[in-house]
Amino acid sequence: MPFPRPIHVLAAATAVVAVALGPAVRPASAAPAETLPTADQLKPALLTPADLGPGYTAISVTQSPSPGGNQTPVTGCAALSALINMHATQTGPQVTHAAVELDGPDGNPMVTQSLAAESSDRLTADFKNATDALKSCHSITFEAGTQDSVTFTVSPVTLGDRKDAPAVHLDGTLAGVQLNGYVGIERFGTVAMLFGYFERQGSNEQTASMQYRTAVAKVERTLGTHAGSTTAPTALPTTVPTTVPTAVPTATASEAKRV
């Protein structure tokens, strides 16, 4: 049985919003913009199938849930629900963002990761909002896009080495199918990371933790900063511009005779 697609999408969308990154529209009086990583510089820090082992495939994903669209039908966890619905209805420019989804055999388990760049002061505030939203959440309900809805029990867990890094376990049932998820967020200077691990008919916290640690280590190595740091990345991958080859002139008939 494939992973129920509506929950698959909703869980990933919830995780992306949990990274917070606040409203896309900012006051005109905001501090001058810092030099932030581009989406192309963030992409090399994302997980690939080779990072997770045999059986995983990369799935094409949009860079972020579309703003200004329909509200996600969600109840419970007032603070987290507010972040989800705010993101779904906002309009305006979006933060720099890169994302990946990796599916195991038959889409189980599913691993999602997103990286987003924001100025230090904004990320500090937005990360705090996301942390508080996760910590205050104990039960959240989603409409599954079918006749059923699913209620997840939400409980805190530790996925990585940093005890202060916010992470939760989501446990629910849809049409008799057990659904489990692990969501963690982390900061790397001016870059926020969201990690999500979702599976059906099982709850493998050890694997979720191992893959979360793999994600953290790759971001640290690629961007040159440490998890929990407020210092901007120092080893951003170089973006190579696309160049058009210069045409080689063709010799004229008279030039050819002189050769």
Give structural attributes.
259 residues; alpha+beta; nine-stranded antiparallel β-sheet; 7 helices; 29% helix; globular; disordered N terminus; disordered C terminus
Radius of gyration based on Cα positions: 21 Å
Strand arrangement within the widest β-sheet reads 1-3-4-9-8-7-6-5-2
In which range does the helix fraction lie?
25-40%
- Give the tally of β-strands: 9
Q: Categorize the overall geometry.
A: globular
Q: Which class of secondary structure composition applies to the elements?
A: alpha+beta
First CA to last CA: what distance? 72 Å
How confident overall, as mean pLDDT? Answer: 74
**pLDDT under 50 segments (min length 5)?**
1-7, 16-30, 63-71, 88-93, 240-259
Largest sheet: 9 strands, antiparallel
Strand content: 15-25%
Order of helices and strands: HHHEEHEEHEEEEEHH
- Total DSSP helices: 7
